[in-house]
Amino acid sequence: MQVIVLGAAAGGGFPQWNCNCPNCFHARQGSSDHQPRTQSSIALSVDGKRWLLCNASPDIRAQLNTTPELWPNELRGSGIRGVLLVDAQIDHVTGLLSLREGCPLDVWCTPNVHNDLSTGFPLFPMLEYWGGLCWQPVGLEDHQDVVEFSIPFLPDIALTAFALHSNAPPYSPRRGATSCGDNLGLYIVDRRSGKSLCYAPGLGNPTPLAMRFLHAADVVMVDGTLWEDDEMQALGVGTSTGHQMGHLALNGNGGMCELLSDLPSSTRRILIHINNTNPILDRTSEAAKTLQDAGIETAYDGMQLTL
Ligand code: MLT
Ligand code: MN
Ligand code: ZN
């Protein structure tokens, strides 16, 4: 399977339009140590022609323009055959509005996400005027925290969605009281190569279930939102902690870096969904050096993997 990182940043992107934190300031000045990144999304394909987007970011138009694999080959068209949503957050779903000219469009998501996108952020009813989004249910619900499924245009790919304990969006009735299906992680196996990818940009809590899939994968692409849980407060740019937003910080006891150090030594470890305040976005920082010493990579826009 082929994987293209379309966007490696968390909500707001890097630099964020209204932020002048040190990272955003330097990125805006064109510093070569602060590479800009768009909001979180990856694309998957088996044949290099038909693609699944995992998340549709508000930056999708720019992402598609810089990704020849996803350009139309006919008068009107696209390699994008469908979109899978890991949650109903703005940074992962707003790009569906920009894909309206391609409706009807298949969208895989859980009942909770479908519900939020039919009410609090009603993309499903809105886009009916353009031909609609065809909901393909991923049945993560109470008492069902793992679901295996396949996607017709991804032959030989076995997909498993597993529940993540994170948070629902602010416009969800389940904000602060999430239930199974608000956030998912994906375990993706290519049956031809036997290789697997675990994609979990919203891994807020290292549950045994999530850790099982991280341990099984050849490549993990996981939540790199914040370096410290209170980083946004410390910089004076926000009031929420990572924990409140449903993200596990990288540094410290029980942090993401420590979890990643427990994986088999052959596992390729990649961070994605990185917030603009995170010091790892400054290549010269101590945090970036710590990652490098630990063999942990930081995803960037345009990064490609073959598995
Ligand atoms: C999140 O991942 O917590 C959200 O995307 C934050 C946001 O975009 O407001
Ligand atoms: Mn997000
Ligand atoms: Zn910033």
Automatic annotation (TrEMBL):
Pfam family, one: Lactamase_B_2
Metallo-beta-lactamase domain sequence ranges: 50-274
Keyword line: PQQ biosynthesis, Transport
InterPro entries documented for this protein: Metallo-B-lactamas, PQQ_synth_PqqB, RibonucZ/Hydroxyglut_hydro
CDD domains: PQQB-like_MBL-fold
Transport recorded as keyword: yes
GO biological process: pyrroloquinoline quinone biosynthetic process
Pathway: Cofactor biosynthesis; pyrroloquinoline quinone biosynthesis
Function: May be involved in the transport of PQQ or its precursor to the periplasm.
Family, per entry: Belongs to the PqqB family.
Name of protein: Coenzyme PQQ synthesis protein B
